[in-house]
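Recall the central idea of this unit: under ordinary conditions, the amino acid sequence of a chain determines the structure it adopts. In this exercise we apply that idea directly, starting from the sequence alone.
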Amino acid sequence: MSRTVRGARVLITGATRGMGALFARRAADEGASELTLWGRDAAALERSAAGLARPGLRVRTDVVDLTDLAAIDDAARSVLAGNATPDVLVNNAGVITGNGYFWEQNPREAEETLLVNTLAPMRLVSHLLPAMIADADRPKRVLNVASAAGLVPNPRMAAYAASKAAALTWSDILRLELEQADHGHVLVTTFCPSYVSTGMFAGAGAVRMTPALRPERAVDQAWRGMLAGRPFVITPPGVHLGRAARGMLPARAWDAMARVFGVHGSMESFTGR
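Accordingly, the structure predicted from this sequence is:
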């Protein structure tokens, strides 16, 4: 059981299913004293909370639409007012829309993707981080779920890849800023998985050397990396190969390699949830 989590207050966004629900269970199992779960579906939040009952654990649920920045402001202020400043913050919530080319998609879909995947975690951290910095009595952790798509983008997911690339860069700069400002008790980890088999990427095609991750495996890797304060958790190993090849090869050579490995065709059969 981690000393970082035992007795800690933990806030998780997108906590009703998939990796979010698994992060919540992990926090409960490791002895968190308070869990704050954010999601859009009140009934699903209540079901999640009911399944997390543990002696000494208080579970709070907040219905928050992450496409509404004012709602994030209100919910974050409520957390602070309730003396529930998190020791561990998991920015897990994410969305992806259809698999059309960028010009075929409704512009509103791109806007919602950027709101949930990029602007929402930024907005939430802007509220909570000052209080996390001020409380240096115990270690603090921020886990930001980005994506391998932010490192190795591929067609038919333009808005999603852009949102995750922005989230990835922001997250790592946040880490550097905390180090530079000597707030060493607050550590930031950026999680960059390839496809995770939660249903969010249902129908996505296989990529050579980059198998889809079981959600339990993805959460375990992210959680362990976060507790250790690792700057990045990038998984599976094939993502490192793609990242390195894209950085070293000329653009056309990388394009050819990505086609051969199935990267550029992996979203053609995507259906999602």
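The chain has eight helices and seven strands.
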